[in-house]
## 1
Amino acid sequence: MVLGPVTSEWRASAAKVYGARFVPDLAGWKQVFAAAGFTVEVLATRSVHMEDMLRVAEPDDVDLASPGALRDPHVLKVLAENAGWMQRNHGPLGYGVFLCRKAGLDGGGQGSEG
């Protein structure tokens, strides 16, 4: 989620690296949820901090990669592009926690993060 204003160049770079045609801000997410029939409560928003992203889990904590994936040049290229883009462009990025309720549902509703 975008927390601050971004340039058209920033949006073009997000599209180039990630294929993201739409990187919404808080109002944009609220519009998307409302258009889908949800009422929206924003529980929290936070900035993305590079130092948090750079923390690495202990090697034994998690194994999400297939054996040998980190030797694949295509995988390494994607990881390098992501790291470079985040280094240059993380400033306006953040995340939000939204509580979305679908109209007409009894007993609480459904939650969603964006």
## 2
Amino acid sequence: MIMRKISPLTRTVVLAVACVALPAMAGEASVCHSGIQSYSTTGNGGAFPQLSNATRFNCQAGGVAYTIPQLAQRGWRIVQVVPVVYSTTYQNDGTAIMRQRQQLIIEK
């Protein structure tokens, strides 16, 4: 068997192609939503719902509700967290009732 020496240029090209191809072969991504939360605001600001380690998210990949720590244990990485407002109802006393949920974008 004859061994040929690989040129530095060939090695560089192979490495560059591998680095570009790896993200394209990356695993999975999914969208998850928390339950809808209602809260009241006043003219001087109200308490917005806070995310916690107990907040459960329904994810399209798997259909089971998980907490953020459970998603991390399963190898998911959170890419984005976005509050999604569904409705705002303004009251006569100046308060507003808002309904929102948290949306996660996760990937492996």
